[in-house]
Write a structure and sequence with these properties.
The chain has 427 residues and is an alpha/beta fold. It has 16 helices and 13 strands. The protein has an eight-stranded parallel β-barrel, surrounded by four helices. Strands 6-8-9 form a three-stranded mixed sheet. Strand 8 and strand 9 form a beta hairpin. The longest helix has 21 residues.
Length: 427
């Protein structure tokens, strides 16, 4: 299977999940609360902040030609209006290292984590955040834009609405039966501990008030109101504008978390409503984007009563997602019906300790991507999640998404077979 010349084959990471010691971020603060919902703190994570050269070299040696990573807002602007030139210099070195290794860098400006000061000012439900994000995007672009071709503004801009829906559903399930907590977690594409969150709620409110000045801090990965959802898209538009003012030819886009929504008989209205919420209502806000980042891991089934669990006997990943790599092709085709710009698969992957299943997943996912390209759909790249086993948010380090294994004690890297296997597709 051969991809067109210039097709990007790479892996993705997020700063907070791999860098370590991200001490000015909202996540770091929440991880250290006495009644935290995190199973463990991120600590030094994978120490990618110091070991990025080794990690990028491993990608290059395996044949990968692109790397999607995020710059950390909380490092770059640790206090409101105070920008740290040393930190921006660090990311310049990461980009230079990519270039030296013939790897195309794609930078994400905001991958879930925000500076604590932003959350104290109302976070992702406050109108002021639009302007703060514009200023940050403008600063990063001014400093790094000449060395980049692609910028993703916000990772999974729709995550807040997905969390609002699942939190509501989880609360209903929790009322019915406490044991159902686990199955709820398998329906959202981010590591969450809903059971622990519910138990800790009353303590967490007091502790959050101490750190953020509010019992319910509006971090990016919070249940979003419809107004907050649109605010995120306005922040994306403001950032895109700031980037284009400086570099009109920069390819700018946003990434969305998307499920392959499949309706069984009677489930059609639920699937249609979910797709409207997950994708189509964003179309006016992304119409001028150069590309859309498609992020998919599995499918969601709907019956006449609403969302269904994975089919009886289905293979589940460590995240309790159904193993269903065909979902990616279905989502790309569905997105292309309404969004006519370029598509880049910015995340697709599997949490498993069995690397042969990862290889099987990659094989089927990429076959689907190739089918789409053969049918004239402008898919320009595929980024596997993730480059290395890392900090899966509230679930800690237990989820193995990586193409590279990382020894938690020594930080020693060991490439898995899947790394080279993916690299072979880059020709």
């Amino acid at each position: 299977m051969k991809f067109p010349k210039g097709f990007l084959i790479g892996a993705s990471t997020a700063a907070h999940q791999v860098e370590g010691n991200n001490i000015h971020s909202d996540y770091w603060a929440q991880e250290l609360l006495p009644h935290t919902s995190f199973s463990e703190p991120s600590g030094e994570a994978c120490d990618h902040y110091r070991r990025y050269e080794e990690d990028i070299r491993m990608m290059a040696e395996a044949g990968l030609n692109a790397y999607r990573f995020s710059v950390e807002w909380a490092r770059i602007e640790p206090e409101e209006g105070v920008f740290d030139d040393n930190e921006i210099e660090h990311y310049r070195k990461v980009i230079a290292c990519c270039r030296e290794n013939h790897i195309e860098p794609i930078v994400t400006l905001m991958h879930f984590t925000s500076p604590v000061w932003l959350i104290r000012k109302g976070g992702w439900e406050a109108e002021t955040t639009v302007e703060y994000f514009r200023r940050y995007a403008s600063y990063v672009t001014k400093k790094l834009g000449s060395e980049l071709n692609y910028i993703c503004t916000i990772n999974e801009a729709n995550m807040g609405l997905q969390l609002a829906a699942i939190t509501k559903r989880f609360q209903l399930m929790a009322q019915q039966a406490q044991k159902n907590a686990k199955s709820a977690e398998g329906t959202v594409q981010v590591g969450m501990n809903f059971e622990k969150m519910m138990e800790n709620m009353k303590y967490a409110s007091m502790e959050n008030a101490g750190v953020f000045g509010t019992p319910q801090p509006q971090i990016f990965v919070s249940s979003r109101t419809p107004e907050g959802d649109i605010l995120v898209m306005k922040a994306h538009q403001a950032a895109r504008e700031a980037i284009k003012e400086q570099f009109p030819d920069m390819k700018v886009g946003v990434t969305l978390s998307m499920h392959d929504l499949q309706a069984q008989e009677g489930g059609e209205p639920f699937a249609e409503a979910a797709w409207e919420e997950e994708f189509t209502h964003y179309l006016p806000y992304i119409a001028e984007d150069d590309f859309l980042g498609v992020q998919n891991y599995t499918r969601t089934l709907y019956g006449p009563q609403g969302q269904l669990p994975a089919p009886e006997g289905a293979e589940l990943t460590q995240m309790d997602y159904e193993f269903y790599p065909e979902a990616l092709e279905h989502v790309i085709r569905k997105v292309h019906e309404d969004f006519r710009g370029d598509l880049i698969v910015t995340e697709n992957g599997i949490a498993t300790a069995d690397d042969s299943r990862r290889i099987a997943f990659i094989t089927q996912a990429l076959e689907g991507v190739k089918n789409c390209i053969d049918d004239g759909i402008p898919v320009k790249g595929y980024f596997h999640w993730s480059l290395m086993d890392n900090f899966e948010w509230q679930k800690g380090f237990s989820m193995m998404f990586g193409l590279i294994a990382v020894d938690r004690t020594t930080q020693k890297r060991t490439p898995k077979e899947s790394l080279k296997f993916l690299g072979n597709y880059a020709g």
